[in-house]
Write a structure and sequence with these properties.
globular, 10 helices, ten-stranded mixed beta sheet, alpha/beta, Purple Acid Phosphatase, chain A, domain 2, 408 residues, 25% strand, seven-stranded mixed beta sheet, 21 strands
Length: 408
C-alpha cells in the first residue's frame, strides 16, 4: 500500500514537471507575481478570452486529488452527485484524470492559432481548508493540487473578482492566491487588501508591449458587497455601481500601471446568469471605459451562456462570454440557453494602438467534463445567436468548419 502511494506521488511529480516544462517551452515565460515575459516576434497581439472556469465541485472530484466532496447545498450534499448527473446524461466519466483532461484539444488549437495571452474568469476557490461562507447556497472549491490544470490549459491570467472566490472565506481566498502565485498564473480582482485586489495583472510580450488586465466584480453578478476588499481587509475589487465615479477610479488605477504601448483589458463579473438581453447600463459603462479610460477590450462574464458582443470604435466588448468549464452538464431547467456551449474569443489587437484587427471564435462544448467541438447544428445555433444578439451594425459571421470568423 505504501509502495502504491509513493508511485502515485511520483507519477504526479513527473506529470507536474512535464506540464511545466511543456508550458515554459511553449511560451518561454519567466514568471513574476502578477505577470509574465514572453519571447515573441513582432505583429499584432493575439488575446484569447473566455468566461467562467469552474473547476470545483464535480470537476474537482474526477481529478487526481479530489477534495472533500461534502456540500452545504439544499438538495445536494456531495459533489459526487454532479458527476452522477453528468454521467446520466453523457455517459461514463473517467476518474483520476490528469490536469490536461478537461481542456481537450483547446490548448493545441489556441497555440496553432498563434495566441499570445489567455485570460479566463476562475470561479472556484483553490483550497482544501476554510469554512463555507455563511448564508450562501453554493460553495465552489477545487483542491490546490488540481489547479495544475490551469498550467495544462496554458492560462496566463485568472480573473478572481467573482461571486465564488470567497466561498470558503478569507482562508480559502488566501490559499487561492498562494496557489496561483506558486503556479505562476497571473491574477487580478481579489487580494489580501484593497491595493492588491485592485492591482492589474500584466503579461509582457517582448518587442510588442504588454497586456494589462484589471479584474472587477459587480453585485449585479452576485458578488456580495460584504466581500469588498478594504485597506486592511482581504476581498474583491468591487465595482459598486456603473457610475462616472467608478469610471474615474478605474482610470486612476489603469494610469498608475499603464506604460506606453500597453493593451488594456478590463474584465468584469456582472449581470445575471441567464438571459440574452444586454442591460443599457452595461453598454453605457463599457463604452465609457473605451472613450474615457482608453480600454482596448471589455471582457464581461457571469452569464452561464454566451451573449452578444459589440465592436465599438474599433474595440471589442464581450458582454457575456458564457461558461467555459463547469459541472452543470446534467442539470436541467435552462435548456433553451444551451449552457453546455461556450467559446474562446480570439482577438488580434494592433500592438501600438490596441485597435481590433481580427476576431475569431472557437466554439466549445462541455461533454463528460471535457471541452469538445460542438456539432454542426450546435455551431449553426451559435452563429444565429451571435448574429441576432450582437449590437454591432453591419457585421456578419462566417463559419469555416469548426471556427467562426467575424467580419465588420
Amino acid at each position: 500500500m505504501r509502495h502504491g502511494v509513493q508511485t502515485r506521488e511520483s507519477e504526479d511529480r513527473d506529470e507536474s514537471s512535464r506540464i511545466r516544462s511543456l508550458h515554459c517551452a511553449y511560451s518561454t515565460r519567466h514568471w513574476t507575481w502578477g505577470g509574465a515575459v514572453t519571447s515573441l516576434g513582432t505583429g499584432p497581439i493575439s488575446v484569447a478570452l473566455a468566461g467562467d472556469v469552474m473547476i470545483g465541485r464535480g470537476v474537482d472530484q474526477i481529478m487526481r486529488h479530489p477534495g472533500d466532496p461534502t456540500l452545504h447545498e439544499t438538495w445536494a450534499r456531495s459533489a459526487l452527485r454532479y458527476v452522477e448527473l453528468a454521467e446520466e446524461k453523457s455517459g461514463p466519466i473517467p476518474r483520476g484524470v490528469g490536469p490536461a483532461y478537461v481542456w481537450g484539444d483547446s490548448p493545441d488549437r489556441l497555440a496553432d492559432a498563434g495566441v499570445d495571452v489567455r485570460i479566463v474568469n476562475l470561479e472556484a476557490a483553490l483550497t482544501a481548508r476554510g469554512r463555507p461562507w455563511p448564508g450562501k447556497g453554493i460553495h465552489y472549491r477545487a483542491h490546490p493540487e488540481n489547479a495544475q490544470c490551469l498550467i495544462a490549459g496554458r492560462i496566463d491570467v485568472a480573473v478572481v473578482a467573482n461571486n465564488h472566490i470567497l466561498d470558503w472565506s478569507e482562508q480559502g481566498l488566501g490559499d487561492t492566491l498562494d496557489t496561483l502565485d506558486r503556479l505562476g498564473v497571473g491574477r487580478t480582482g481579489a487580494g489580501a487588501d484593497q491595493s492588491e485586489a485592485w492591482s492589474p495583472a500584466s503579461v509582457t510580450i517582448e518587442r510588442s508591449g504588454r497586456v494589462l488586465v484589471l479584474g472587477l466584480g459587480s453585485p449585479s453578478g452576485g458578488v456580495d458587497p460584504g466581500w469588498e476588499a478594504g485597506p486592511d481587509r482581504p476581498g474583491v475589487a468591487l465595482l459598486g455601481s456603473f457610475s462616472e465615479v467608478c469610471i474615474e477610479r478605474i482610470d486612476q488605477t489603469i494610469d498608475g500601471s499603464r506604460r506606453p504601448g500597453d493593451v488594456v483589458v478590463v474584465s468584469i463579473h456582472w449581470g445575471p446568469n441567464w438571459g440574452h438581453g444586454i442591460p443599457s447600463a452595461h453598454r453605457r459603462f463599457a463604452r465609457a471605459l473605451i472613450d474615457d479610460v482608453g480600454v482596448d477590450v471589455v471582457h464581461g462574464h457571469s452569464s452561464h451562456h454566451p451573449m452578444g458582443f459589440e465592436i465599438y470604435h474599433g474595440r471589442l466588448i464581450l458582454y457575456g462570454c458564457g461558461d467555459l468549464l463547469t459541472d452543470y452538464e446534467g442539470i436541467l431547467g435552462h435548456e433553451e440557453f444551451r449552457p453546455e456551449l461556450g467559446a474562446w474569443y480570439l482577438a488580434a489587437l494592433d500592438a501600438d494602438t490596441g485597435v481590433l484587427q481580427d476576431l475569431r471564435i472557437i466554439p466549445t462544448k462541455v461533454n463528460r467534463f471535457q471541452l469538445t467541438t460542438p456539432s454542426q447544428e450546435e455551431m449553426d445555433w451559435l452563429v444565429g445567436l451571435f448574429q441576432d444578439k450582437s449590437v454591432t451594425p453591419g457585421f456578419r459571421i462566417e463559419r469555416q468548419q469548426d471556427l467562426l470568423t467575424v467580419q465588420w
